[in-house]
Specification:
This protein is of the alpha/beta class. The protein has five helices and eight strands; from the N terminus they run βαβαβαβαβββαβ. α1 crosses α2.
C-alpha cells in the first residue's frame, strides 16, 4: 500500500462486518421468508453472495440471490463513454411481494442506488426494498440512505474509497485513496 492510501478495513474486518450485516439483514426483514438479496455489479454481487452464505451457515436457509447491472439505468450514462461495459443482470423471479435487499460496496452520491431501484421496478413490485452497503462515505446528491451499513467513513469529495474482494482482486480490504496522489 502506498503513502496516499489509508487502510480502513483489512480482510478480517471485512469478514466480521459482513457477518454482522447478515444478522442485521435477517433482523430488518423479520426473517428470511420471501427474502431476495441482490448485489449490484461488480463488487456488490460478491458481497451479497457472502452475506447469503453467512445466513445459510447460521440459519440453514438458502436465501435467493440475484445480480443487477445498472449501467443502462444510470442518469449519467453519457459520461461513461461510447461503449459502457455491461455485465449480467440475474433476477429470475418476479419481485411482487418479496422483500429485497440491495447490496453494494460503497454508498456515495446515491445515483447507483437510484438506478438499481429503477431497474428493480422492471421485475415487479417488491413489498419492501432495503439497502445494505459495506461502506457509507457520505456525500449524497440524492435523498438515499442505507438501512444496513458496515462502516461509515468521512472522506473528502476528491478522494476515493476502493473495496477489494478476494473473488475479483485476490484480497479483501477497503482503502481510501487520497486525491491527486494515486
Amino acid at each position: 500500500m502506498s503513502r496516499n492510501q489509508s487502510l480502513i478495513m483489512d480482510a478480517r474486518a471485512v469478514d466480521r462486518t459482513l457477518r454482522r450485516m447478515a444478522d442485521e439483514i435477517v433482523e430488518l426483514t423479520d426473517g428470511t421468508d420471501n427474502l431476495i438479496i441482490v448485489g449490484i455489479q461488480r463488487r456488490g454481487v460478491q458481497l451479497a453472495e457472502r452475506i447469503a452464505r453467512t445466513i445459510k451457515e447460521r440459519d440453514g436457509i438458502d436465501v435467493a440471490r440475484g445480480a443487477l447491472d445498472i449501467t443502462l439505468y444510470r442518469d449519467d450514462l453519457q459520461t461513461v463513454g461510447p461503449r459502457p461495459v455491461v455485465g449480467p443482470t440475474d433476477l429470475p423471479w418476479n419481485l411482487d411481494g418479496k422483500r429485497v435487499v440491495i447490496v453494494d460496496d460503497v454508498l456515495y452520491t446515491g445515483r447507483t442506488v437510484r438506478a438499481a431501484l429503477d431497474e428493480l421496478a422492471d421485475f415487479g413490485r417488491a413489498a419492501r426494498i432495503a439497502l445494505a452497503v459495506l461502506v457509507d462515505r457520505g456525500g449524497r446528491e440524492l435523498p438515499i440512505r442505507a438501512d444496513v451499513v458496515g462502516k461509515s467513513v468521512s472522506v473528502d469529495p476528491g478522494d476515493r474509497v476502493d473495496v477489494f474482494v478476494q473473488e475479483l482482486d485476490g484480497r479483501d480490504g477497503v482503502v481510501v485513496v487520497r486525491r491527486g496522489e494515486e
